Amino acid sequence: MAKKTKKLKIKIQPLGYVNKPAVEFLRSTLSNIFGDVEVLKPLPHNEFCYDRFRRKYISTCLLKSFDVDDVTLFVTEHDLFADMMNFVFGEAELNGKRAIISLYRLKPEFYGSKDDDLFFQRVLKEAVHELGHVLGLVHCKNPKCVMHFSNSILDTDFKEWRYCDDCMKKLSKLGMEVNFSKI
Ligand SMILES: [Zn+2]
Ligand SMILES: [Zn+2]
């Protein structure tokens, strides 16, 4: 008998203006990997989450400041920071519903170059990483696994955009259906 698996339903919630091709890329790739993906109309950032001194949003604050029904991936072009970390690429609720990624430090322009393919790959990796936390995955020791913690963009560029075999096993134990064969 086939094992019952759950497909994830994901909503992408842009905050403020977000690069349209990146959002469309996320919609199509994430729907191939996870299942149903819907892009919502942009919402403004909650300004009480803005730190004027650091000129960044507090990711945890933004994450908690929106009510959600389904798994929701917030996407912002602004820089984020959290707790003791000077900046974060994203944050998510472990086994929760909310995840957020910032495109700010994923843009090759931030490091003085231009490469749309590289940008899109980074956006996908960070999205798959944060959604992995939502599904219950913690950080993985395998530096090639998308669940490896990215201290800098070099870690992000080094890792692949998929979960390693160990992480895939954990997901299948949790009954989650994830499919990397369509992209
Ligand atoms: Zn993480
Ligand atoms: Zn892994």
Overview of this protein structure:
The chain has helices spanning 20-34, 59-64, 116-134, 153-158, 165-173; strands at 8-15, 35-39, 50-51, 56-58, 71-76, 80-82, 85-88, 90-92, 98-102. With 183 residues, it is α/β, with parallel strands linked by helices. Helix 1 (20-34) packs across helix 3 (116-134). The chain is globular, with a radius of gyration of 16 Å. The structure holds zinc ion (2 copies). One zinc ion is lined by residues 129, 133, 139, 149.
SSE order and pairing:
Layout: E1 8-15, H1 20-34, E2 35-39, E3 50-51, E4 56-58, H2 59-64, E5 71-76, E6 80-82, E7 85-88, E8 90-92, E9 98-102, H3 116-134, H4 153-158, H5 165-173
Parallel strand pairs: 1-2, 1-5, 4-6, 5-9
Antiparallel strand pairs: 3-4, 6-7, 8-9
The protein binds zinc ion (ZN) (2 copies).
Features of this protein?
183 residues; alpha/beta; Collagenase (Catalytic Domain); 4-stranded mixed β-sheet; 5 helices; 30% helix; 21% strand; binds zinc ion
Radius of gyration: 16 Å
The N- and C-terminal alpha carbons lie at a distance of 28 Å
The biggest beta sheet is recorded as: 5 strands, mixed
CATH class: Alpha Beta
- What are the segments in which pLDDT stays under 50 over at least 5 consecutive residues? none
Specify the overall morphology: globular
Please state the second-level CATH architecture.
3-Layer(aba) Sandwich
Please tally the β strands and state the result.
9
Q: Please tell me the total number of domains.
A: 1
Question: Per DSSP, what share of the residues sits in E-state strands of 2 or more residues?
Answer: 15-25%
Bound molecules: zinc ion
Computed structural class: alpha/beta
